[in-house]
Amino acid sequence: MFFFRLKDLSFRASVLLPIFIMGVLISSLAWWLYSDRTHQEQTYLNERTVRVESLQVANDIGIEMWRARLAVALTWGNPRDMKRIQATEQTLTHLLEEFDNYHPDNEPGRKLKQLVPEYVTEAKATFAYFHTIDKAVKHGISGSGKIFDQYALHIANGAYSGEWQRKALTAFNHLRTTAVYYNGFVSGMRVSYLDTALKNINAAVVILEQNLADDMTANTYRVAKRYQEAMLILDKDINGYHLSHKAALDTGAKVNDALIDLQNLLGEQGFIFADEGLRQRELSNQITIGLLFAALATAVGFSLVLVRGMQAQLQLPLNAAEAIGNQDLSQCHIDDGKNEFGELSRSLDKMRLNIREVLGQIIESSAQLSSASEEVSAISIQSSANMHSQQEQLDSLSAAMEEMRSTSSDIAHNAESSANATSDAAKSAHVGGEAIEQTVVAIRSVEQEMNVTTDNIRQLVEESQRIGSIVDVINAIADQTNLLALDAAIEAARAGEQGRGFAVVADEVRSLATRTQSSTEEIGSIIKRLQEQAVAAETTMTESVAKMSQGVEAVNRSGDVIQEMNGLRCKVSRRPLRP
């Protein structure tokens, strides 16, 4: 599954590796989230800028269009204001330039771009008629009122009489009516007013033409004639003006509808854009949560694999210690791992072999000691029997001194026998002493081996205590991880909705830290039991060493007794025989 064996990892690496992997996964995910959010925000800002620019352009065009239409309407209300007409024409020209730079990407915008030039053309056509009115005024209408008033004053002063005076008054009335209807025509561009004015000017010209011999009448006739020509000019183009005016109104209504459609479309696109942004944000959050859970599941799964591997590896030294505690030295529990648990397993197996070897030596030495003790006991019994025999012989010698004096040859023979028996007892005692010395040497060798085993067990206790300190470090790391997870949960709660995903991750990290702490506590309890069993083994070995020391002292005392017996034998052998 891995390119390395889990049992080759050190205990510290086994504990820190899941935390490191979790940190790497969270850091990678955080970097990916940051990059993705930055890209999304940049894309959102760019698209938002484009949409805002499109909306701004549409608003500017709409404002320009409404401003142009308002100027056109005001110009239509006063066709004699040439400054306003020129200003409105410039406004329309500027509007065309704006629309030349406008490149819409939607149907209402394209429709508006098509309608605006038509509207400008039709509005300018109406303004062309206004220029025609200005030309007509300059041609024959401007200044005519003054001439007509002079003619009326001339009539009122009685310059004429009879029938012509009546005709002159009729002609003046036609002229005044023409002026009134002309002004009414100009203010409303009504064709009926123009027709009435043209009818009256024609009638006035016909009447004035009958008295051209009069200078005043001839002058008034010339002015009326130009007035008639101006009215004919206006009458000639009036239908075209109305057609252009109606077309401009219709096109303006279409432009208005297109502007409304464009504004609605842009507003709807803004809502759609906002909804798409929310959907993308929600999708990104879902992906983030999914990746967080996947990373968490990966880290938890890897942690469980490590914990199970550690538990399985720790079970071997635990079984070995339990077997040693049960005085079973035949089972072999060896782990080939290269971490602390493997070293602990091999150390326990080495201790088992050492204890087994020491116990074998103790058994062998005990057997030798038992044999030597039996031999010493036999020698002691034999020596006691010989001593008793010597005592009896001495008694016999004391009782039969006289007989021994008389039979010196018998006494000498008996003395020689006693010397031989005493020599045999001395030899046996010497052999017993040498056996006791060998026994002492063997027991001391066993005692040294047991001291070495005791030192190994003491080192095992110290190593177990070191493992306990490592477990304390792991517990501290788990506590610190738990605190960090709690701080992350608090910060996520402060962040609100955006931090909900990180709150879930913080809870899972805190749960992982809790499980890690419980696993390390279980490992600590196992190591504690192992320490207790090692201490018990150390105590047992210490007691065995003390008992071996007592055995050595007992054997030494046996040697002293034998040496005393040798001393007594020497005294007996050196005592001179008295005949």
UniProtKB/TrEMBL annotation:
Residue intervals of the Methyl-accepting transducer domain: 365-565
Subcellular location(s) of the protein: Membrane
Species for this entry: Enterovibrio nigricans DSM 22720
Record-level GO BP terms: chemotaxis; signal transduction
PROSITE patterns documented for this protein: CHEMOTAXIS_TRANSDUC_2, HAMP
Domain HAMP: 319-360
SUPFAM superfamilies documented for this protein: Methyl-accepting chemotaxis protein (MCP) signaling domain
Superkingdom of origin: Bacteria
Entry's transmembrane regions: 12-34, 287-307
Family membership noted in the UniProt record: Belongs to the methyl-accepting chemotaxis (MCP) protein family.
Full protein name: HAMP domain-containing protein
Keywords: Membrane, Transducer, Transmembrane, Transmembrane helix
Keyword Transcription regulation appears in the UniProt entry: no
Region Disordered, annotated ranges: 402-430
GO cellular component labels: membrane
Keyword Lyase included in the entry's annotation: no
Skewed-composition ranges (Polar residues): 406-425
Lineage: Bacteria, Pseudomonadati, Pseudomonadota, Gammaproteobacteria, Vibrionales
Main location: membrane
